[in-house]
Amino acid sequence: MSFVSIYDTTLRDGTQAEDLHLSTEDKIRIACKLDELGVSYIEGGWPVSNPTDQRFFKEIQNYELKHAKVACFGSTHNPKLTPDKDPNLKSVLQSGASVATLFGKTWDIHVAEALRTTLEHNLEIIAGSLAYLRSQMGELFFDAEHFFDGFKAKPDYALQCLRKAWEAGADMLVLCDTNGGSLPHEVAKIVAAVREALPGANLGIHTHNDSETAVANSLAAVRGGAVQVQGTINGYGERCGNANLCSVIPNLELKMGRTCLPQGHLSLLTATAHYVSEIANLKPFLRQPFVGNSAFAHKGGIHVSAVIRNPRTYEHIAPELVGNKQRILLSDLSGRSNILFKAKQFGFHLEKDDPFVLELLAEIKKRESQGYEYAAAEASFELLLNRTLGRMRRYFSLISFRVIDARHEDQAQPWVEATVMLKVGGVVEHTAAAGHGPVNALDNALRKALECFYPNLKEMRLMDYKVRVLSAAQNGKSGTASNVRVLIESGDALSRWVTVGVSHNIIEASWQALEDSMNYKLFKDDQKKLEKITPEK
């Protein structure tokens, strides 16, 4: 298999996304994760543009990367300066990086309007900048900015720019679809023209996703002879983003027979994608191909029945190859196969015609018609499954709760207090607690009532809280009278789980999700205790 080097620019081009901000420490953590994945190059940033990137290049020298080389990004020199006087080129040399990537203009409109110089002078700028760095860098790449638009406008001039860069010592000529407007057939045609004009040159590809074709364009370029793909994890980047390496890499490795990562490292892809989104504080895209939580999720009963017999019926690859997993969802579209599969996951081997299966399926369909969502709240489903089977004890029962939410004109924020009365065994516990909002107050009061009986509840915490107003079609009401669905994500040191509640009253829906969350923690801890005391067969 031929090798294609992966050049990750998440730390530079990815951070140009409007909702993505990384500190130096964030960049270091992501760089280490990318190195663990096994990419060939990590573009650390443009040091002349901001102090964060300057600190990154200084700090990364304290880390010994096993697979990746760190690249420093920069531009060709200022038209009014010479290379040796240009602060941008000096910052590249001072970065300590062994690889330099310079971008230069290849579209005549940019030369005239952005650089405000002549076409001939731009050629001199490209050649002079690269020649100045050549002897002082281990590897030198030239990003031909707006190359595809430039080629469409003036093909001869765009090729002249590449030729000057190659003659000046560039190791890689990277063709950039900077505006993201090209289509795969155009990319293929233009890459072929470049191969013909510069048969000895090493070509790379850098695409943006403004036409939703960045990945397809990257693959088309590789088919045409490109040996390097530049992109970002999760497709982060300016405007609509860059080529998504989480799709590029598996497509190249699994479908085009090109090696991108060290052997055995492709299975790290999903964990890397989720890690980067966590550091970036951005919600993962559920339907992202290959690495998204929904990439191998099956909901329809016919699909599930087939995929249980043979996953290839509805999965284009085995999810484990990219570190993902198959998921069977539960909804009003579910059939018995979904129930059997989920029950098996939780340790129950049931028969298709078991009355329990029919009962549970009917209950799920009824609840989902009211707005419950078990595909997203598997902890609540596991509780429902075990309650129906009689495998779960009652840890506590609600007698009453009350929430007071009041604000006076001399107060900046409302004052909230929740009162909870529970029965635990034969004991009635009556507590009250304040909080930042009614849900937090309920959570505090519930914990206060239960922690004396179940100290392990101190280990868990509420991670996320989501509310959705359901449509009138789901409950026959609209506006402020609509049902709401509350999803609560909770976690402890070992795991996370999601529970659901539905009601026209947001406090009641929140109570249902909170109650399930506490019950799930207690139930799973009980299971762990039983596993320890049950002798192995």
Helix content class: 25-40%
Which residues form runs of ≥5 with pLDDT under 50?
none
Structural class: alpha/beta
Tell me the radius of gyration: 29 Å
Number of strands: 16
Taken from the alpha-carbon principal axes, the silhouette is: elongated
Distance between the ends: 47 Å
The largest sheet has its strands arranged as 1-2-3-4-5-6-7-8
The amount of beta strand, in percent, is 15-25%
Task: Tell me the name of the CATH class of the domain at 5-279.
Answer: Alpha Beta
Mean pLDDT: 90
If you consult CATH, what is the topology of the domain at 5-279?
A: TIM Barrel
Q: What CATH architecture of the domain at 5-279 do you see?
A: Alpha-Beta Barrel
CATH superfamily of the domain at 5-279: Aldolase class I
Number of helices: 18
**Major beta sheet summary:** 8 strands, parallel, barrel
Describe the protein's topology.
Layout: E1 5-8, H1 24-37, E2 41-45, H2 51-59, E3 69-75, H3 87-94, E4 99-105, H4 108-115, H5 119-134, E5 139-145, H6 147-153, H7 155-167, E6 172-177, H8 184-197, E7 203-207, H9 214-223, E8 228-231, H10 245-255, H11 269-279, E9 297-298, H12 301-309, E10 327-328, H13 336-345, H14 355-370, H15 378-388, E11 397-406, E12 415-424, E13 427-434, H16 438-450, E14 461-469, H17 472-475, E15 484-491, E16 496-503, H18 506-533
Parallel strand pairs: 1-2, 1-8, 2-3, 3-4, 4-5, 5-6, 6-7, 7-8, 9-10
Antiparallel strand pairs: 11-12, 12-13, 14-15, 15-16
Helix pairs in contact: 1-2, 1-11, 5-7, 6-7, 8-9, 9-10, 12-13, 15-18, 16-18
List keywords for this structure.
537 residues; alpha/beta; TIM Barrel; 8-stranded parallel barrel; 3-stranded antiparallel beta sheet; 18 helices; elongated
